[in-house]
């Protein structure tokens, strides 16, 4: 458990108004019964007086143990994945009735659902995150009281931040890349050199390593032969994200459907995890300004750095900033562009990557409900030349038709485009690129 917010001073438990009323009414009934000589008046205030005396006796017997309570807020995990759960624990002191109330955070679920729970000295609530980003837990209202409810106090603890990283989706796609770059990695190269994949058994030449001598073939042919191997190479994977605009799903879409930014973030995390697991170097370049640039790196640490950068992307940042442009890229780099293909700057960046010799794949992140023409069936036609002000479906349908021209031109230029529909979205594209790499080529005269 990691410690969270802690108040610098304790919370002093003071008598409640109920205790004061019980003491006043009980004492007044006792005084009236003695003054008027009517013992039956004692029965009116005796229960309240007895309750006040018992609470006072408990206070005296326990001394200052419950006089001051220091509520502490702890969160079990400061970083969780989408769909993960973190425990929010409020701890006071043993024997103190503790009640905690937590407002419902956006894109999250609480257990219990109403976000309020009571316990003896400790209260544990559970928060389940449904979307990536910074989850603000709190402010948390804490109320403490003794066992009889005679004394109580309350305080509002400041909120705590929980980082929600994109879900760890395992990409269902091959790890082959069109053009491997480097000298060590998981990709088989066409070039012969140090590696583990056997290329051929040939005659020994000066300079060959002795440990590669094939003694079985050498003893049979009476001449030294050595094993020739293919080199194993890694590659550079550049993920270009288009966060210029966050396109929300259509109003008639199902609740919880992802926006274009959600699809971009999840696709980036899945692609990065896929190639980092294969030992490649992965970097991220954001055309917008929501995701900070992630320099190339490999290994588990690079995955943690990358997912942390993705989770810090601000959803409500509406400030207009100049679009970033990637000036150059290493030839042979596998560039995966995640974009809804609505911005001219993003389309121009695809052309720059192709011109610099990168192997470009475009992942379409436009929500499928945008521009859906099926919702136009049955809509009333304009009457007396008056068009309904609710022309949102027609406008997006026309915009998607205009976008189809861009998609067609990119495909004619040799840039494959695939719609992000989950872990298996990139498999057909990568398989076709691998097949094109090994296909016979026409020799130019």
TrEMBL record:
Keywords for the protein's UniProt record, in alphabetical order: Membrane, Transmembrane, Transmembrane helix
Domain DUF58 as annotated: residue spans: 200-364
Membrane-crossing segments per the record: 16-35
UniProt keyword annotation of Electron transport present: no
One Pfam family matching this protein: DUF58
Domain of life: Bacteria
PANTHER family cross-referenced by the UniProt entry: BLL2464 PROTEIN, POSSIBLE CONSERVED SECRETED PROTEIN
This protein's name: DUF58 domain-containing protein
Species per Swiss-Prot/TrEMBL record: Brachybacterium vulturis
């Amino acid at each position: 458990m990691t410690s969270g917010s802690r108040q610098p001073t304790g919370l002093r438990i003071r008598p409640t108004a109920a205790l004061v009323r019980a003491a006043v009414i009980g004492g007044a009934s006792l005084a009236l019964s003695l003054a008027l000589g009517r013992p039956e008046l004692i029965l009116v205030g005796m229960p309240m007086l007895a309750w006040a005396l018992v609470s006072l006796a408990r206070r005296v017997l326990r001394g200052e143990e419950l006089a001051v309570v220091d509520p502490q807020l702890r969160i079990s995990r400061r970083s969780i994945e989408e769909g993960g759960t973190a425990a929010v624990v409020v701890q006071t002191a043993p024997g103190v009735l503790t009640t905690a109330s937590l407002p419902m955070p956006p894109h999250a679920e609480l257990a219990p659902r109403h976000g309020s729970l009571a316990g003896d000295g400790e209260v544990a609530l559970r928060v389940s995150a449904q979307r990536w980003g910074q989850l603000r837990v709190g402010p948390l209202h804490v109320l403490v009281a003794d066992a009889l409810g005679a004394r109580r106090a309350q305080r509002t603890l400041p909120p705590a931040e929980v980082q929600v990283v994109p879900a760890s989706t395992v990409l269902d796609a091959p790890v082959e890349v069109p053009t491997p770059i480097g000298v060590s990695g998981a990709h088989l190269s066409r070039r012969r050199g140090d590696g583990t994949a056997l290329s051929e058994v040939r005659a020994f030449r000066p300079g060959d390593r002795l440990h590669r001598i094939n003694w079985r073939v050498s003893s049979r042919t009476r001449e030294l032969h050595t094993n020739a191997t293919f080199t194993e190479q890694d590659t550079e994977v550049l993920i270009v994200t288009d966060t210029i605009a966050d396109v929300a799903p259509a109003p008639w879409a199902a609740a919880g459907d992802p926006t274009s930014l959600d699809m971009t973030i999840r696709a980036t995390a899945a692609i990065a995890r896929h190639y980092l697991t294969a030992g490649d170097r992965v970097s991220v370049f954001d055309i917008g300004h929501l995701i900070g640039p992630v320099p190339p790196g490999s290994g588990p640490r690079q995955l943690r750095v990358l997912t942390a950068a993705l989770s810090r992307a601000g959803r409500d940042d509406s400030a207009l900033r100049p679009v970033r442009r990637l000036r150059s890229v290493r030839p042979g780099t596998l560039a995966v562009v995640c974009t809804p293909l609505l911005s001219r700057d993003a389309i121009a960046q695809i052309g720059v990557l192709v011109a610099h010799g990168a192997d470009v794949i475009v992942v379409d992140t436009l929500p499928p409900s945008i521009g859906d023409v099926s919702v136009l069936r049955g809509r009333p036609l304009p009457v007396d030349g008056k068009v309904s002000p609710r022309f949102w479906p027609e406008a997006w349908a026309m915009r998607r038709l205009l976008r189809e021209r861009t998609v067609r031109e990119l495909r004619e230029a040799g840039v494959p485009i695939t719609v992000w529909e989950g872990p298996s979205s990139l498999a057909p594209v990568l398989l076709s690129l691998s097949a094109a790499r090994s296909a016979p080529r026409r020799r130019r005269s």
